[in-house]
Amino acid sequence: MARAGGAETLDYRSDRLLDEIKDKTGGQGPDSVIEAVGLESHGVGGVMETLQTRLTEQERPYAFETAIMACRPGGTVSLPGVFIDKVTVPMGTVVGKALTLKTGQTHVQKYLAPLMQKIVDGEVDPSFLITHRIGLEQGPELYKTFRDKEDGCIKVFIRP
Q1: What is the C-alpha separation between 90 and 109, in angstroms, rounded?
Q2: Looking at the chain, which runs of residues are DSSP E strands?
Q3: Segment among 50-54, 63-67, 86-90 with least mean pLDDT
Q4: N or C end of the chain: smaller count of CB under 10 Å?
Q5: Is the Cβ–Cβ distance between 72 and 94 less than 8 Å?
Q6: This prediction's pTM
């Protein structure tokens, strides 16, 4: 989906992910990283998972760890992703790289009206995100499909 929207993509399952990121950024890492996944991320092994074998899945924010490891020294890691309770992250790396952490949920009310205007004016077409179109009566069943990450379900358009 990101590629279809014009973004360059990398496979998070790659054993060389951090090397690939550094290769694409002249060895420095990106200036800013947005970790928008939160605790929905899945571990793929590696050093951090080995160090944290006694922690629960909810205490291992894989995408957050990768963002920290990938970001250049002095860079910024933004966290609009959803985190619940405690998490374990490599704070030594955060401090050692002098990273800035920016947190908080997206300010939907602030951006909703300007975004809707861009959609109405044809400047933004979000339709590529919609994977399913349903009637309201199908909502509860399709929510299970979304929750269980089945049938390629990403965004659902519900007709009342």
Answers
A1: 33
A2: 32-34, 76-79, 100-103, 130-135, 155-159
A3: 50-54
A4: C
A5: no
A6: 0.68
The answer to whether the CB of 108 falls within 8 A of the CB of 114 is no
Query: How many Cβ atoms from other residues are within 10 Å of residue 129's Cβ?
Result: 13
Q: Let me know whether 99 and 144 are in one domain.
A: no
Q: HSE, CB side, 13 Å, CA atoms: give it for residue 30.
A: 15
Least Cα distance to 56 among 84, 83, 87 occurs for 87
Does the pLDDT value for residue 63 go beyond 70? yes
**CA-atom Rg of the chain in angstroms:** 18
Domain end position, chosen among 103, 118, 139: 103
**27 and 91 housed in the same domain:** yes
CB of 88 closer than 8 Å to CB of 68: no
pLDDT (mean) for 98-112: 91
Amino acid (1-letter code) at residue 3? R
- Shared-domain flag, residues 32 and 72: yes
Angle, in degrees to the nearest 10, between helices 17-24 and 62-70: 40
Q: What's the average model confidence in pLDDT over 131-157?
A: 91
